[in-house]
Design a protein that fits this description.
The chain is an alpha+beta fold. 35% of the residues lie in helices and 24% in strands. The chain is globular and about 55 Å long.
């Protein structure tokens, strides 16, 4: 298995993986990303995000899309995993573990104090997998999100 940084040529594959992940997460209709948007986000200077591609025998079987965040408590930046995806036929081959290990190494190399991600509460296989790798759930924290009309209204009142 090979884990490498994505290149612009990987954008169609990344978008396909994003759509497959969204379908698995029962949110296929929410994907509005395009190849153009992803290309800009991943390969502009500076990039908004980065991606790793997992390959087996030269074929992409998974990806990890990530970016840096910042912790005011530690005073250091962190690494945030936005999406981890392994194709159904490649699950159980170690691709997910390899991607997470590579991300942990990147986090250490870049001086990150944390490596974090979210997981849907109903996704028991993923939760069990992450726990097996030493991840701790932040049970006391909830993600808050403002989008669409609510974001427009909040921006207008600010």
């Amino acid at each position: 298995m090979n884990i490498r940084f994505a290149t612009p040529a990987d954008v169609p594959t990344i978008l396909r993986f994003i759509r497959e992940l969204a379908e698995y997460e029962r949110e296929a209709d929410k994907v509005v990303a395009t190849e153009e948007l992803l290309r800009e986000a991943l390969f502009s200077i500076p990039p908004a995000a980065e991606a790793l591609i997992a390959e087996r025998e030269g074929e992409p079987i998974g990806m990890a899309l990530f970016f840096h965040n910042f912790s005011t408590w530690t005073g250091w930046r962190g690494l945030y995993l936005e999406d981890l995806y392994v194709t159904p036929e490649a699950r159980g081959t170690g691709a997910g573990t390899a991607l997470l290990k590579r991300l942990a190494k990147i986090a250490k190399e870049r001086g990150c104090a944390r490596f974090e991600w979210s997981v849907l509460t109903w996704n028991a296989p993923a939760i069990d997998f992450y726990r097996s790798l030493g991840a701790a759930s932040m049970e006391d924290w909830r993600i808050n999100r403002v989008t669409g009309d609510a974001l427009d209204r909040l921006a207008e009142n600010g």
